[in-house]
Design brief:
The complex is a heterodimer. By secondary structure, chain A is mostly helical. Chain A has one domain. Helices cover 72% and strands 1% of the residues of chain A. A two-stranded antiparallel sheet of chain A has the order 1-2. Chain B is mainly alpha-helical. Chain B has three domains: 243 residues, no CATH class; 211 residues, no CATH class; 75 residues, no CATH class. Helix content of chain B is 73%, strand content 2%. Chain B is built from 25 helices and four strands. In chain B, strand 2 and strand 3 form a beta hairpin. The chains are: A mainly alpha, B mainly alpha. Chains A and B meet through helix 7, helix 9, helix 10 and helix 12 of A and strand 2, helix 24 and helix 25 of B.
């Protein structure tokens, strides 16, 4: 296997996107067959990706062509797996949602693949400019995906808002890159760090400024305070499967890049950010919590709570230079935990709200368990996991992050995070309580569990539970320990030469 | 060879899952023929038995210990806890008779449960029970044992409440479960304390054995005591015995298998398994022996006044378990296990006989409404006689040899008080057992025109087989003084107490005495009940009949104070203090939420303004830091 094998996942997705774009031009193919083709490309990419899963390596494929702009290591393989599963999940969950009468066409899937391609490229890029391009590929495709239903004013509005604010943050990234280049004469990850070492005796304030600008873009994309305002409006305005896709995968990709950047280059600069990030985290947690409390609409609640989850993740991010490996692996684990729970919750709600006109509020779920007991059970599982109750993957994720924060000495952060978790029980459990403790159902025209999406969501629900309780309870089946081990391995692969 | 150990457990586990699925399928779609679950249910215990025989043969001929560790089940810090199976002489002996008696009772149950609509469910639980029990026995460490320990507890709970439409049965199931939780609590505390000292070596018996010497003796005594609390619950000893009589609410095969032959002996097995630990703390052992003796005596007294056939047997089970604890408490693990072994045969037989009688009489349980069954159920009569004799310790039946060894153990170790309680209990046992026997099978003026439900062959065969077992099982442990070889003692060599020096004449005297006491009991029962007149209503009252009001006492002492405390907390503490505080805080927080949503005003220009403000703040901060 030559270098090509390391690029296969990227190639499959990229080529798939182009092929789908060409195919959707011919009107003879129905949208579901296009969805199948997209799924096929993604699955191929996934398989070729899983081939290197958990194997410690770091390769710059075709170094004479790409000059080391693209890297493939254990770390990228790990994240690409999450991203690909996310893309596959989006298609499966939206299987019934993406229909022609909702103005979805074949191009939508092409965009989905482009977006996934961008995210994967972001995870694999070892250079700031290529990272910027990857980020923009992913974002631009997402802007269009959000506003794909042009007949719906809310979609267009959300798309426009995201475009404007996203471009603003993109500018900051580019500016930051320029500043770093001005200071270090390089944009390659790894080399930047060497230039920034105190031994060189350079004035690095330009680079600090540049890195801070990139940090801001990063904070914007993961919706941390004070760059979070777009989150609720955009999530709320997008089609539900797209919200699910954004919430679960984009954060993963952005985190993956930032983690790589910080771990490889910014160890020294990060010290300057400590106080700043502490403030950001506490405000993010507070803002997200308060916002989620005030929401009555379920989708908006999930969007607000995603801000809180960003806060949790950032805690591990701060403690990274003190307890490096375990902090990274706890971020990686938490990303999976959040990815599964959010994907499940968004997906299930999108399945329940079959009609777009319906804007599901808490009230609608009164007595829901009497009509759809299994759906209520799954929804409860996702809520429990998001709230981080023991027995679900969310608990393990939070446990690692909080204990890591305490270990690293950030007791204040851990305390405020625990407080936020405590309050989050309110808005998550409200749904469970409403579903189970009211006698007569309000929603009655919910489609029964049928077809692909519910099966897939059921699998996610099982995975959520498995991640929470499944140690090696069943012989030879991968468990938490396995994921953590691979996460640690991934972190190690960053520093391979 | 080692993998066989795993398959001994897996065989009933897999069939149990299969039966469960078939049953669910039957509920959801159309009902399947009963062969679907009967056949696998009956095959799996047999498979386990055959596999156990292979392993037994291997151990006997090769004289080694088999260990099989398929995978790491848990890894805590640097201790890997394997899903480990340990086949040594002790565990494989237990497996042998558990699977064999289990198999017999499965056959019996297939007839007993024939017309029950929940038959599939029953065998699902029953096989699951067997798997858990075998796991408990074959586990190579306390934690794996605890899986089985809890598994049998759950199955016991499910099966006691099997006829869940009668609320009384559900209450009985809850009682059993809750009382056992109290015991488990002790067990877990003991186990965790023990784990504290094993963090370097691992948590299987072999590793624990290496460390016990280093544990301070006070802590060790605490561990031993706490583990024994678990045994108290599971094996129904004072004070945690109250659940066992009520547990008879389940179907009779359940009482035979779970609440007589196997599960309740788990506590004894556990103590024997931890022999290396208890040997270091003989004072705790004596305590165990006294608890056992008191339980034996106490239960025997209660049994003399009961009228429900299954309750009498339940109390006799408790009483016999007491004997076993005397033995293991005094360090005579082999004798204790020997009694577990013989007891499994005759007690299972007694329950199956009782079940047969009840089936014949259309679920009548009051012995004073039976009578004169000797002519009508000759086979059951004969087999019950064998079992009764075995329980009373009349030679040459099984119980004689094992009980005698326990008595000898007590006497030889110088605990004469224990010995006298145990001997007295032997007399009481003979009395209440023959009381039952005479009333049920003899007696005059009984209603002979009563219609008798015919017993199927499937029900009679296991009864007969176990009767042979009750007759023969004792011969593996014929003491030297009677010219035997005492195979069991030489087989369980490691678990035998080393220093037992009693002169032969004393041994004979002890034997004679215990048999005499038993015979006195039989004679008393004969005089009082052989020609019992059924026209006379049996007056059941008095403190003994009411089981010394222990249940009421517990209720008054534990349940009621807890309830009033709960209601105090619920009505006062919760509403007036905690709720008030929480609600106050909540209102504040929700107000904060309203304020925050003002920032969320869907104005893009405002958002970008905020972002730029953020960027400014970031850089002001940086300038301040960098100077």
């Amino acid at each position: 296997m030559g270098d090509i094998s390391y690029l296969l996942p990227l190639l499959f997705v990229g080529v798939g996107a182009v092929v789908l774009m060409l195919l959707s031009y011919t009107k003879s193919l129905s949208i579901s067959s296009i969805a199948k083709i997209a799924l096929g490309f993604l699955v191929l990419a996934f398989i070729s990706n899983v081939y290197y899963f958990g194997e410690l390596h770091k390769v710059y494929p075709y170094e004479n062509v790409f000059f080391g702009m693209i890297v493939s290591d254990t770390y990228s393989v790990y994240f690409n797996s999450i991203l690909l599963v996310g893309a596959i999940a989006t298609i499966l969950i939206g299987w019934d949602y993406f229909r022609p009468d909702r103005r979805f066409t074949g191009e939508f899937f092409s965009l989905l693949l482009f977006s996934t391609f961008g995210m994967m490229l972001l995870v694999q890029s070892a250079e700031l400019l290529s990272a910027f391009i990857a980020l923009e590929i992913a974002s631009l495709s997402l802007y269009v995906m959000i506003g794909f239903q042009t007949d719906n004013i809310r979609r267009v509005e959300a798309s426009y808002r995201y475009l404007v604010l996203g471009s603003l943050s993109g500018v900051l990234f580019l500016f930051g890159t320029a500043l770093i280049y001005a200071s270090t004469k390089t944009t390659f990850l790894g080399n930047i760090g060497v230039e920034l070492l105190p031994q060189t005796g350079k004035d690095i304030s330009l680079a600090i400024g540049g890195a801070t600008l990139i940090l801001i873009t990063f904070l914007f994309k993961i919706s941390a305070f004070p760059f979070q305002n777009w989150t609720i409006d955009v999530y709320d305005g997008s089609p539900l499967p797209v919200s699910a896709y954004m919430a679960s995968t984009f954060k993963v990709a952005v985190f993956a890049f930032m983690l790589r950047f910080v771990a490889m280059d910014l160890g020294y600069i990060k010290d300057y950010w400590d106080g700043l990030l502490m403030g950001v985290i506490i405000l993010t947690l507070a803002y997200g919590t308060f916002l989620a409390l005030a929401q009555n609409n379920l989708k908006r609640m999930l969007a607000s709570s995603s801000i809180v989850h960003t806060g949790y993740l950032l805690i591990a991010f701060v403690s990274i230079d003190i307890i490096g490996e375990s902090a990274s692996s706890s971020i990686i684990y938490y990303l999976i935990a959040y990815f599964l729970s959010a994907m499940g919750a968004f997906g299930l709600i999108s399945y329940i709200s079959s009609s777009d006109k319906l804007r599901l509020t808490y009230e609608d779920f009164k007595g829901f368990s009497h009509v759809r007991p299994y759906m209520s059970a799954m929804l409860s599982i996702f809520m429990l996991s998001l709230a981080g109750l023991p027995g679900t993957i969310g608990f393990i994720g939070k446990f690692y992050i909080f204990s890591g924060a305490i270990e690293a000495g950030y007791t204040v952060l851990a305390t405020s995070a625990i407080l936020a978790t405590f309050i989050s029980i309110y808005y998550y459990f409200k749904l469970i309580a409403l579903m189970y403790f009211y006698p007569s159902p309000i929603l009655s025209n919910v489609p029964p569990l049928k077809g692909l999406p519910p099966i897939f969501i059921g699998f996610i629900a099982i995975a959520v539970l498995w991640g929470g309780i499944g140690n090696t309870f069943i012989a030879f089946f991968p468990s938490i320990d396995f994921l953590i081990d691979v996460a640690k391995l991934s972190h190690r692969s960053l520093f391979l030469q | 060879m080692n993998t066989l150990l795993m398959w001994i457990v897996l065989s009933p586990l897999l069939t149990s899952i299969f039966i469960g699925m078939v049953y669910m399928w039957g509920l959801k779609y159309h009902k399947l023929a009963r062969q679907w679950y009967i056949v696998p249910a009956l095959i799996s215990p047999f498979v386990s038995f055959v596999l156990a025989c292979f392993v037994f043969w291997e151990i006997l001929t090769q004289n080694n210990i088999l260990v099989y560790k398929p995978y790491v089940w848990l890894s805590i810090e640097n201790v890997d806890i394997y899903m480990g199976f340990l086949g040594d002489k002790l565990s494989i002996l237990m497996v042998l008779f558990v699977s064999f008696v289990g198999w017999m009772i499965h056959i019996y149950a297939s007839a007993y449960m024939q017309d029950d609509e929940g038959e599939g469910k029953f065998f699902f639980y029953f096989n699951l029970f067997l798997a858990s029990m075998l796991l408990l026995v074959l586990a190579d460490g306390p934690l794996i044992m605890f899986i089985g320990w809890e598994g049998v507890g759950v199955c016991s709970y499910l099966l006691i409440g099997f006829y869940f439409r009668v609320s009384q049965n559900v209450v009985a199931g809850n009682k059993a479960f809750i009382v056992n939780r109290v015991g488990d609590f002790g067990f877990v505390i003991g186990m965790v304390t023990l784990f504290f000292y094993c963090t370097d070596v691992g948590f299987d018996y072999a590793s624990i054995k290496q460390v016990v010497g280093n544990i301070p003796s006070f802590t060790l005594a605490f561990i031993g005591l706490m583990l024994f609390v678990g045994a108290m619950g599971k094996s129904a000893q004072i004070p945690l015995y109250v659940w066992l009589p009520d547990a008879m609410a389940g179907p009779t095969p359940v009482s035979a298998l779970i609440h007589a032959a196997t599960m309740v002996t788990a506590g004894v097995y556990m103590v024997a398994r931890f022999n290396f630990l208890y040997e270091l703390i003989p004072q705790v052992g004596v305590f165990i022996a006294y608890v056992g003796a008191l339980s034996a005596f106490f239960a025997a007294i209660i049994a003399t006044k009961q009228t429900d056939i299954k309750k009498i047997l339940a109390y006799s089970t408790m009483s016999q378990l007491g004997y076993m604890f005397i033995a293991v408490g005094l360090g005579g693990y082999a004798s204790g296990v020997f009694h577990v072994f013989t007891h499994a045969f005759f007690k299972a037989l007694l329950f199956m006989g009782a079940g047969a009688v009840m089936t014949a009489l259309h679920h009548e349980q009051d012995i004073f409404k039976m009578g004169g069954l000797r002519q009508k159920l000759p086979l059951v009569h004969g087999c019950m006689l064998v079992a009764t004799l075995a329980l009373c310790g009349i030679p040459p039946f099984a119980g004689f040899f094992s009980k005698d060894q326990i008595l000898l153990e007590a006497f030889a170790s110088g605990h004469y008080l224990l010995w006298s309680i145990a001997t007295l209990t032997a007399g009481l046992s003979a009395y209440y057992m023959f009381r039952l026997f005479f009333v049920v099978f003899e007696g005059k003026n009984y209603n002979s025109s009563r219609h008798i439900h015919r017993l199927s062959k499937t029900m009679q065969v296991p009864i007969f087989v176990l009767a042979i077992g009750s007759l023969m099982a004792g011969f593996i442990g014929v003491p030297l003084v009677l010219g035997g070889d005492n195979h069991i003692a030489s087989y369980l060599f490691e678990w035998t107490k080393k220093s037992l020096h009693v002169e032969h004449s004393i041994e004979f005297a002890l034997m004679g005495l215990s048999v005499t006491v038993a015979l006195v009991g039989v004679v008393l029962a004969y005089v009082k009940f052989y020609r019992y007149d059924f026209k006379k209503e049996y007056v059941s009252k008095g403190i003994v009949y009411n089981k010394f009001y222990v249940d009421e006492f517990y209720h008054l002492l534990i349940v009621l104070p807890l309830q009033s405390l709960s209601s105090f907390i619920a009505s006062r503490l919760d509403i007036q203090i905690i709720d008030a505080l929480i609600m106050g805080a909540c209102r504040g927080v929700i107000k904060g939420g309203r304020f925050v949503s003002l920032l969320q005003n869907a104005n893009t220009r405002f958002y970008s303004l905020l972002m730029m403000c953020g960027v400014s703040v970031f850089f002001i901060y940086l300038i301040l830091v960098l100077g």
